C-alpha cells in the first residue's frame, strides 16, 4: 500500500496522526475538483456546487451515522471549536469542564474566551496508566459542580492517544443537563464512528487525518435541538433578514458558506470514504492495531517502562496511534531532530505532565521493517537512559 501514497520513500513515516496522508487516487480526485472549479468558476459555484456539497455531506453522514443536514464541512477541528465555543453564552457563574489531556490549540480557544467572558475553564486530571472506563468517568465527574454547563473532551486525545468512553460520559451529561462538546480530531477513519450512538451535543472531527482526505477537510455536527445555539463565525451571505435559505436551515447557512473559498477538499471526502471501503479498512485497522501493539511491547522492553494502557490490547483505549513512555530526555527537540536526520524517522516526541513520550502512528503504508528502523534508532539514541 505504500505505492498508493505520495510520502517520501526515504523517510519512515510514523506520524500519520499529525496531518495525515492522502492516497494518490483521492488526491487526484481533489485536483480534478479544483480543475472543474477553475474551468467555469461562476457557473460551478452558482449552479453546481450546492448539489455537490449536499452529496458529499450525505456520504459523510452515512459514514458517521447522522443525517446529512446535521453536519457541515469546515476546514479543520480547531475551526469547529471556534464556531461552537464563540456561539455559547457563558458568564462568571459558569464552568467548562475538561481534562488534562486536551489539545493545546483547543485549550487556547477556551482560555481566550474565559478571559473575555469570565467563566472558569477547569481541567480535571485523568490519571495514567488507565485502569478502566468506569474509572475515567468517575475521575471526570469529580470535577462536575452545580455550575458546570459544558463538558469539553477529546474523543481520542492528541498527547496521550487515549480513547475516552464518550457514550457513557454524554449519557451522564444529558441526565445532568450539561452540554457536551467533543473534539474528534483523531477519530474519523481510525475507529468506526456512530454519532447517533454516542449522542454528543456538538462534535467536530478532522477528515484529513485518519480518513485520508485532502488537507482542509473536517466537519462539525450539532444535535438538531442544539443547532439554534450556533451563530456564524464568519458573517456572510448566509445571514440576514430576507435571505433565501441556500442549504435549508440556519445551521447550514450560518456555517457552510464562508465566502469565496476552495472547497475541493470537501468534495473529495466521498472519494476518501470509497477508497477505504474498496481496501477493506476494517481489516486494515485491525492489522495496524496489531503492529502497533507489538511496537509498544518492543519499546517497553527497550526502556523497561510500563504502558499507559491496560494489558488487554482489545480494551479499546488505543487503536492505530499510541503514546509510549520514554526515559527523561535532556532535549526533546534535539532527540526528535536526531531521529529524522540520522535515521530518517518522522515521529513526534511528546511532553505531558512533565514526562517524555514517543507517539507512534501505524497506518496502512507502515510495515514491520519501519518499526525495526525505529527500534534501531531508539536503541542507539537511548542507551544511557535505558533501564537495565
Give the low-confidence spans.
none
Provide the β-strand percentage band: 5-15%
Q: What is the end-to-end distance? A: 38 Å
Q: Find the structural class using helix and strand composition.
A: alpha/beta
- Which strand order do you get reading across the main beta sheet? 2-8-7-6-5-3-4
Q: Number of helical runs?
A: 14
Walk me through the structure.
This protein is of the alpha/beta class and 388 residues long. The chain folds into two domains: 2-23 and 279-381, Aspartate Aminotransferase, domain 1, CATH 3.90.1150.10; 34-269, Aspartate Aminotransferase, domain 2, CATH 3.40.640.10. Helix content is 42%, strand content 14%. The protein is built from 14 helices and twelve strands. A hairpin with a 2-residue loop joins strand 11 and strand 12 (355-361). Helix 2 runs antiparallel to helix 3 (41-64), helix 12 packs parallel to helix 14 and helix 13 (332-343) crosses helix 14 (368-381). It starts with 11 loop residues before the first strand and ends in a 7-residue tail after the last helix.
Tags for this entry?
12 strands, 2 domains, Aspartate Aminotransferase, domain 1, globular, 3-stranded antiparallel beta sheet, Aspartate Aminotransferase, domain 2, 388 residues, 7-stranded mixed beta sheet, alpha/beta
Secondary structure elements and pairings:
Blueprint: E1 12-13, H1 16-19, H2 24-39, H3 41-64, E2 71-74, H4 77-87, E3 95-99, H5 104-117, E4 120-124, H6 133-141, E5 148-154, H7 166-175, E6 179-183, H8 195-198, E7 202-206, E8 218-222, H9 250-256, H10 264-267, H11 269-278, H12 281-303, E9 321-325, H13 332-343, E10 345-346, E11 349-352, E12 355-361, H14 368-381
Parallel strand pairs: 1-10, 3-4, 3-5, 5-6, 6-7
Antiparallel strand pairs: 2-8, 7-8, 9-12, 11-12
